[in-house]
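Service request form, structural biology core

Requester: graduate student, group of Dr. S.
Request type: structure prediction, single chain
Budget code: on file
Notes: please return the result as structure tokens.

Sequence provided:
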Amino acid sequence: MIRNQWYAVLESKEVPKSKLIGVTRLGEKLVFWRDKNGEIVCLRDKCAHRGAALSIGKLCDNRDKIECPFHGLRYDSLGQCTLIPANGKNTPVPEQFKVISYPTTEKHDFVWLWWGEIQAEYPPVPFFQDIDKKFSYKTHTELWPVHYSRAIENQLDVVHLPFVHHNTIGRGNQTLVHGPLVEPSKDGNEFKFWVYNQKDDGNTRNLKPEEFTDDMKVFHLHFKFPHIWQNYLGDKVRIFIAFVPIDQNHTKFYMRFYQKFLRIPILKSFINWLANKFNIIILHQDRNVVLTQQPTKTQLKMGEKLFQGDNPILYYRRRREELLPNNN
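Core staff response, request fulfilled:
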């Protein structure tokens, strides 16, 4: 996983008050809860004493601490053990009785976890600023047995539509791919890309990215490292996915349909539900193919033969490689 990044790991509603939530994210077993102020706390889900899961323990001291279910050790929100019952309340706790704590924040109805070194000041949470509070949304979640890089690359693939989605969003047999035109941000940590597909008449040459014209920019796709993507269908409609890494072989999708063209509550909810149902069909068409790809994790050099239509995937792989100095 790319370190020193904010990752969306849960939706806010998945962490209720007065309850411990144990999940695996980024290859680590983690426990989440809300303290007395409603702020999210995250610790590694492993007692420093004998390795029991803290997530099956209980909250105590007005939700400011968590108690291990095995021997009653108590930990504060920074992961420091404050009590070893067997030693007595008056006995100081050795400093080494500590579990790792993770900085968290809540933005856009997600719980974000900082995966990396402690910082004096943390960068802003990466999100699409053009998705404002006027948008309503409906979320769908599901788990795929692939590395998150493979899941992401499927949504960067603009060539597969007339084949995988031949009876849905790929209708029309538009197999000739112009571009794609990839435009990265100044820091390289996000990029937008445009593509224009048409039927192959046997005479038309596919245009190179530098030949892309403004009239071909009908809609675009937008990716931000480490793991969020949106399909910009218009000013009032978006499809969003957070590809949440569970471990090296599993990814959880948080897919949202966003819209702000309807405001009436009943109609808004119905349209969001209906659109999400259609998007699930599209996602499952993708899944049928992606789960057959080998290996389940991708990297820059892996023996594949790429062509021009794979430009967004190639940019993603190159930039990801730069962000992974240890090639994790």
